[in-house]
Specification:
Residues 6-89 form the Shikimate dehydrogenase substrate binding N-terminal domain. By secondary structure, the protein is α/β, with parallel strands linked by helices. The chain has two domains: 2-99 and 239-268, Leucine Dehydrogenase, chain A, domain 1 (Rossmann fold, 3-Layer(aba) Sandwich); 103-235, Rossmann fold (3-Layer(aba) Sandwich), CATH 3.40.50. It contains ten helices and twelve strands. The strands form two sheets. It has a six-stranded mixed sheet. Strands 9-8-7-10-11-12 form a six-stranded parallel sheet, with helices on both faces. Helix 4 packs across helix 5 and helix 9 (237-253) crosses helix 10.
Length: 270
């Protein structure tokens, strides 16, 4: 039996176990997905222990996604190094390898909704972990990326690393100006998670814009409601979460994932 899992602290509310277990059941795989909650200072030992026990693959969540890069237990690939975070570890090779599937998860979520990324102008609000991953993914796919962040210096620092990117603050009128020539908008902040709020003025949204909100609880954020009312294409955060899991499944198993079954299991718990 193959064993996959999640490293994090805390992990009790993770949606990864039901999503991956649904894939195993659908394909009849002898596999299980379990959660591990090591102490914050025991990450390297936890990874070495997983390797010794023959675990096939691990997802990584807070607070360990950045810390993986500092351990000697994992060889980190180029994309995860650029993003500065690892969310997936593969044990199938001669040494554990670290990957980041957040960028591809966002791209696949957009493309699933028929959003063209190549040649597009994309506005990413937020320059934290999600914003970094999505900005690199969009730029590598051929988009011009405008990064807007509350702390303007952080936006400029990220834009200096991302090809074809420019950093901006969030002073009054900035988002309206950026969105006037944009094709894609991504909310990579937590605004909308704890309250019915949005980082983007409703009158800046319009028909023809594609809007991805990385927040997935609630599924329909105020930003997405405003975007739908304006006639924009809306992509909720569960699609990004789904496709980062799909990417991990593909990496670990080499199998075609049952996306519909994984999506149904994910959304049934949201």
């Amino acid at each position: 039996m193959d064993v996959f899992g999640l490293l994090g602290n805390p992990v009790e509310h993770s949606l990864s176990p039901p999503m991956h277990e649904a894939a195993y059941d659908e394909l009849g795989l002898e596999a299980r997905y379990v959660t591990f909650e090591p102490a914050v200072d025991d990450l390297g030992a936890a990874i070495e222990g997983a390797r010794t026990l023959g675990i096939t693959g691990l997802n990584v969540t807070i607070p360990f996604k950045q810390d993986v890069l500092e351990t000697d237990a994992v060889a980190v690939d180029e994309m995860a190094t650029r993003i500065g975070a690892v969310n997936t570890i593969d044990f199938s090779g001669s040494e554990p390898t670290g990957h980041n599937t957040d960028a591809s998860g966002a791209l696949r979520a957009l493309r699933m909704h028929d959003v063209t990324v190549e040649g597009a102008t994309a506005v990413v609000v937020g320059a934290g972990g999600a914003g970094r991953a999505i900005s690199f993914g969009l730029a590598d796919a051929g988009a011009t990326v405008e990064i807007a962040n509350r702390t303007e210096s952080t936006a400029h620092e990220l834009a200096d690393e991302v090809p074809n990117a420019t950093g901006h603050g969030l002073e009054d009128g900035t988002l309206e100006a950026l969105l006037s020539g944009a094709d894609v908008l991504v909310n990579a902040t937590s605004v909308g998670l704890e309250e019915d709020a949005t980082p983007v003025p409703a009158d800046a949204l319009y028909d023809g814009l594609a809007v991805l909100d990385a927040v997935y609880r609630p599924l329909e954020t105020r930003l997405l409601r405003d975007a739908a009312a304006a006639g924009a294409t809306t992509v909720d955060g569960a699609w990004m979460l789904l496709y980062q899991g799909v990417e991990a499944f593909e990496l670990w198993t080499g199998r075609e994932p049952p996306v519909e079954a994984m999506n149904d299991a994910l959304r049934s718990r949201l």
